[in-house]
Every structure is written in structure tokens, then in C-alpha cells.
Fold this protein.
Amino acid sequence: MRLSAAFAIVPDLYVVIKTGLWPTILAISHTPSLLLQPHELSHIFMSHVWKLFSNGVDGNTRTTKQKLITPHAYGVVLDIGAGHGHTINYLDHSRVTKYVSLEPNTHMHAEIRRTASAAGYTESTGTLLILSCGAEHISTILSSLPPVDTLISVLTICSIPSPQSTISGLITEVVKLGGQVLFCEHCLSDRKDVGWWQAFWTPLWRVFFGGCCLDRPTQRWIEDVGGWVEGEGVWEMDKEMEEHLFGYRAGRFVKAG
């Protein structure tokens, strides 16, 4: 792997720290008890970082999401790790009856509501539901809604706790029989040299980017849950992404009915 590619993450890391650190310090100065709430501190930090990064990150995967989400998402859609709700912009309103946003960072909920409202999804009409629990809280999700038709995960599984058990629980319990999983995630590279650098940077990157891990073989974990009957499976990676630390994979799996 070229050193320029291996260290391409450094400028992003600098911008992340520069963007999130000062607002977080100000929040602590106003509410010192935040020092005893590490999760809330992380959410505050990440909310400021995501304001800067979200549109660019969305644009980087726009073409893939247009092919993956727009023609396939239907019925009740659960979007895990929704962020600012960019997924809404790829939904076909004539096919999606309800958008459920799973976003534990409550500082992002106002932006989700704005994006959803602009697309015609609102809480007052029952077409929008925002849940503030994490994807790992399967029982809480199921207490709020029945199994869903479509589960969407866009750059989310990289940061959820206990990812393999969470993925299995979401697919087996939260997606209804005959339902589908649509995902677009950056994953552990098949190249050992790229994977080494992903593992090298992950301990530092995850501290400043909401727990994001660069070295998770997410596409394999999804496929390994099993019980799939059709769908495209895991799409081939764009050759240009092979030497990228954030090389992403996308795919669609349909659950047996």
C-alpha cells in the first residue's frame, strides 16, 4: 500500500479534532457534570463533527445509494444510525409507508425531522418515528414497532457495540420474514496490507469519530447470518476503492419468508 494512501486519514483526523474539540470544551465549561457522562460528551463532539462531514460523506456514496435504496426500499423502513437522515432523500415515497430513524445521538434529531418533513414524513401523520436507542437494543426496538419490511444500514455497523450479535439480532428479530437488508458500509479490506493500516488507525480514529472502526468485515457478518433466499448479495467493490482505508461494500439480501 502506498504511504500516501496509508496516511491519507491524517488530514481528516486533524479536521475532526479541530471541529469537535472546542465546542465540547465549551459544553463542559457550562455543564461540568458532563465530565462524568462520557457517552454524552462523545455525542456532543460527534454532533459538531457530523455537521461538517455529513454532506460530503453522503455525496461520496450517492450513486451507490441511488442504485441500492431507491428501487428496493419499501414498506416500513428502519434506518439504523440515521445521522442527519440523508437516507430519506433516496426513498421512493410511493413505496415507503413509514420511515423509522434509529439514532442514539439526540443532538441530530432536529435535523432528521427537518429532512423527513421536507420529504413528506412526519410524526403527526404517523409516517415518521425517531428512536433514540442504539441498534444493539433489540428489545427496545421491538417494543416500539413490529418487524420491518426493510432495514437500511449506511456507514453505521462500523460503530455499533457487539456488532456480530447485533447484526444477527436485527436480521433475525427486527426484519420480518420476506423482508430485506440494504447496506452500504466501509469494511475490512481483502488486501492484507490495507487491512494492516486499517487496524493500525482504528484505535485512534474510533476515539474521535463516534466509535467508528475501520477494520470490521461487515459484509461477511451480514452474509453469515444466513437464511437468505434472493437478492444481489454483496456487490463487487469499485476497483478505485481497493487501496482506500474507507473502502466500502454494498449489498442487498432478502430474508426467507
Notes: The beta strands are 75-80, 96-102, 128-131, 148-154, 175-186, 228-234, 248-255. The chain has a mean pLDDT of 95.
